[in-house]
Structures are given as C-alpha cells and as structure tokens.
C-alpha cells in the first residue's frame, strides 16, 4: 500500500455537513421566492463558497512546536499531532 503526504503542511477548516446544509437552505429559500430567479450557476451569488471553508494554517513543525509545543508532554506527541493534522492526507 502506498502512503502519500501533503506537499504543503496545511491544516484548515473542514467542509462540514452543517455548512453545506446552511448553503443549500439559503439557495432553496431563494428559489421559492418568485421575484428572485437563479439561472445556471448564478446560485454562487446566493451563497459564496468561501463561507463553507473558513480558515487554514500553513506551519512547519518548527513553527508549530514554538507556538504549541508547551501543550504537549513530549516532542513525539507534538510531532504526532502535527503530522496528523498538517502532513498526512
């Protein structure tokens, strides 16, 4: 089995079911209104995609350990946490 890793140490807000549901509710509400009509891909104007995924962080392990290293018992625990969220896919 092959293992793959992220090229950039990236950790961000996951696209959650709640955010997708909120976007769909807003679009459906607009579709029910007879005065407003969405054509083709104009639904993007009703709810922007950047509202679904809100934030992200790019940090190397050295930056991460300087900022958050004190919260972990050992360097190995900090590295495991960093790899789990920043390095592994």
What does this protein structure show overall?
The protein is mainly alpha-helical. 42% of the residues lie in helices and 7% in strands. The chain contains three helices and two strands. The chain has helices spanning 17-32, 61-68, 75-87; strands at residues 10-12, 56-58. The two termini are 14 Å apart. The model has no long low-confidence stretch (mean pLDDT 77).
Q: How would you briefly describe this protein structure?
A:
With 89 residues, this protein is mostly helical. The protein is 42% helix and 7% strand.
Largest sheet at a glance? 2 strands, antiparallel
Mean of the pLDDT scores?
77
**Count of strand segments:** 2
**In terms of per-residue confidence, which ranges show pLDDT below 50 for 5 or more consecutive residues?**
none
Widest sheet, order of strands: 1-2
| Outline type | elongated
Distance between the termini: 14 Å
Question: Helix count?
Answer: 3
Helix content: 40-55%
- Write down the Rg: 20 Å
Order of helix and strand elements from N to C terminus: EHEHH
Strand content: 5-15%
Derived from helix and strand composition plus strand pairing, the structural class reads mainly alpha
Blueprint of the fold:
Elements: E1 10-12, H1 17-32, E2 56-58, H2 61-68, H3 75-87
Antiparallel strand pairs: 1-2
Helix pairs in contact: 2-3
Question: Which keywords apply here?
Answer:
single chain, 89 residues, mainly alpha, two-stranded antiparallel ribbon
